[in-house]
Amino acid sequence: MLLSKTCQYGVRAMIYLATDSPDKYVSVRSISSALDISFHFLTKIFQRLTRYGLLLSYRGPNGGIKLSRPASQITLKEVVVAIEGPELFTECVLGLPGCGADRPCPLHHTWTIARDDLARMLEGETLDQIGSSTVRERLRLRHR
Fold first, then answer.
1. Buried b (16+ CB within 10 A) or exposed e, 122-134
2. What is the 3-state secondary structure (H, E, C) of the chain?
3. What percentage of residues in the chain have a pLDDT greater than 70?
């Protein structure tokens, strides 16, 4: 699994926000229920995305979270970096310190190509694009 469970859930939730109510505050509980993700786990993910500046949160009876800017201006790479950190796109796939062109690991050259391709793919996809295709093609965001 390339992306952690936290990142998978975060990406799914951000796509949901882009498709459901991109300009309105949505309760975390309703998102948790719609995506079948633990409320407490999702709350922690949203806290991280809010600190990174991708979400706005509002407390109160009509509170919840919403995208901090239009879905067309948020890339999947931003979401992944907010959750996983930039290391996914910079560090050795085997976790070896000092891996690089001078001291490569056995997967260095292959991983460098795949990592750069992944970064380009994620940079080229916005929440708006993914959300539109999710709705249009009736793609699923939950297990059941």
1. beeebbbebbeeb
2. CCCCHHHHHHHHHHHHHHHHCCCCCECHHHHHHHHCCCHHHHHHHHHHHHHCCCEEEECCCCCEEEECCCHHHCEHHHHHHHHHCHHHHCCCCCCCCCCCCCCCCCCHHHHHHHHHHHHHHHHCCEHHHHHHHHHHCCCCCCCC
3. 98
Contact residues for 75 (Cβ-Cβ < 8 A; gap 6+): 122, 123, 124, 125, 126, 127
Counting every residue written for the chain, the total comes to: 144
Cβ-in-10-Å burial (0-12, 13-18, 19+) of 118 comes to: middle
Q: Which tokens in the block code for residue 83?
A: 């959750």
pTM of the prediction? 0.90
Written as one letter, the residue type at 135 is V
Residue 67 structure tokens: 């995208």
Confidence band of 1 (pLDDT split at 50, 70, 90): low
Beta carbons within 10 angstroms of residue 52's beta carbon: 14
